[in-house]
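User: Sequence recovery, please. Input:
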């Protein structure tokens, strides 16, 4: 179940990069802004579910960190698009991310206790690996606006820390 979701997210990110490459274009700054913002919103939603479902103080603390950090980065992203007078553009990648995350939320909602905690944290590890990979390989290199590129690079550093934190929490849940 978890492996299927992780593979879905990875496939979405990889296929979206391949789709942009096949089309002879890379994602535009408005598309990149929407993908990055969507990824943050999805992780906030997952974290809020964990806060309400988990009984583990470590999982809840991790989820609270996800809400705090992703809301802060998304606020910076919204401030930047307003400053630049850019409208984020929905695209196949952001739509696919949303669909896969929605399906995962339904799966996780059926779990409880230790099974939920392990599945949520394992998903966070996989999700951050995938998003970090997409930032490194596609989104940051494709961004043309220097301010957007800097925001994405800052986000990548934060999200790499999230991945490490999730891996640590996962190791404690075994």
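Assistant: Recovered sequence (174 residues):
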């Amino acid at each position: 179940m978890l492996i299927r979701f992780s593979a879905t997210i990875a496939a979405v990110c990889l296929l979206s990069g391949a789709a942009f490459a096949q089309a002879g274009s890379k994602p535009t700054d408005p598309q990149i802004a929407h993908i990055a913002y969507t990824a943050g919103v999805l992780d906030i939603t997952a974290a809020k579910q964990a806060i309400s479902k988990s009984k583990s103080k470590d999982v809840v603390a991790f989820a609270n960190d996800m809400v705090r950090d992703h809301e802060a980065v998304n606020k910076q992203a919204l401030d930047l698009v307003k400053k630049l007078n850019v409208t984020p553009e929905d695209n196949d990648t952001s739509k696919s991310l949303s669909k896969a995350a929605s399906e995962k939320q339904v799966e996780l909602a059926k779990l409880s206790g230790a099974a939920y905690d392990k599945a949520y944290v394992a998903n966070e590890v996989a999700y951050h690996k995938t998003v970090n990979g997409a930032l490194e390989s596609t989104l940051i290199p494709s961004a043309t606006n220097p301010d957007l590129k800097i925001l994405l690079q800052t986000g990548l550093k934060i999200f790499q820390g999230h991945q490490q934190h999730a891996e640590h929490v996962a190791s404690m849940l075994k």
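The radius of gyration is 16 Å.
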